[in-house]
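does this look right to u?? adenosine-5'-diphosphate version
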Amino acid sequence: MPPTIAVIGSHSALQILKGAKQEGLRTLLICLKGREKLYRRYNLSDRTVSVDSVEAILGEDIQDLLEGEEAVFVPHGTLISGGRLEDLERRFRPRIFGNRFIFKWEYDRDLKDRLLREAGIKTPKNFRSYTEIDGPAIVKLPGAEGGRGYFIAKSPRDFEEKIRRLIEKGLIRRGEEEKIFIQEYVIGVPVYPHYFWSAVEGRLELMGCDRRYETSIDAIGRISAKDQLELSITPTFRVIGNMPLVLRESLLMDIFDEGEKFVSAAERLVPPGIIGPFCLEMICDEEGRLYTFEFSGRIVAGTNLFVNGSPYSDLLFDEPMCMGRRIAKEIKAASELGEIEKVTT
Ligand SMILES: Nc1ncnc2c1ncn2[C@@H]1O[C@H](COP(=O)(O)OP(=O)(O)O)[C@@H](O)[C@H]1O
Ligand SMILES: [Mg+2]
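got this back:
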């Protein structure tokens, strides 16, 4: 029996469901209560079960259901932000597409940094203490998602002033300063390539690329320099959406090199390594150098841009191939070869 594709209703679920249907697979939607109506509009799930929270997937009833359906569970961003990754690693019995052991490396900033560094991927410099800040630095707050409250500091004094303001605003508590992550701010433009490592084909594929649309950093160019100064704006990085990006063809060599380094480091440090989709979040400077500051070890929401395929997926496939469909295709292929273990953990 071909496997059923199961997914939590959020993030990139529509694309994953659509891709599974395109590959002729059955779909099971684990829907957060209150969102059923949205997913009914698209009619992409063969079966829907409602749950109160993301954590409900750890419950015996949902696990039994998934195992009974011989489902392959496809993880996405909602799972990582939901925490309980230890439980997901150890207590979740159904098959997960991808490497379930890599999620904590994505969640934990120190582990994330270690993986990138040991991969030999070019990363921005980190400052151990704010007193070391000697050029533009980006300050990342603990637990913040989507860059809320992040700011740029130019010097230790500038840092002290801005942190004081954040404490006053309640965005950070006193004593939490130690968990703050300070990194060289690379002047350049964001580039987020969407990779797919196919364990079945043994090849790295570039499926698309996007850039983020972030407020307020992308907003300050809309007002005059004079107003920027008078309003003393501190830009922040809250993600609002994604925009498609096609790169200069010459950059693709470096894009693939960095991706390949990531694949081999993940294999060494987090066995069985990367399986399926991942993303490196990069800034490209004026020399065309790519600095990676983050990764995602699963499908990213930026792939939602390319439900009908992207310029890059079109070069590889003769049919529209979104990331959701690519995942379904890989699962189907592995299952037909009797090698489902190769793409699941
Ligand atoms: N070292 C850096 N240099 C320049 N911009 C950066 C750097 N690190 C992060 N950014 C910007 O800040 C945003 C949020 O940072 P990120 O580390 O991705 O945080 P989050 O964990 O919230 O996703 C990024 O999307 C990017 O625009
Ligand atoms: Mg990020």
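The radius of gyration is 21 Å. idk if thats expected tbh
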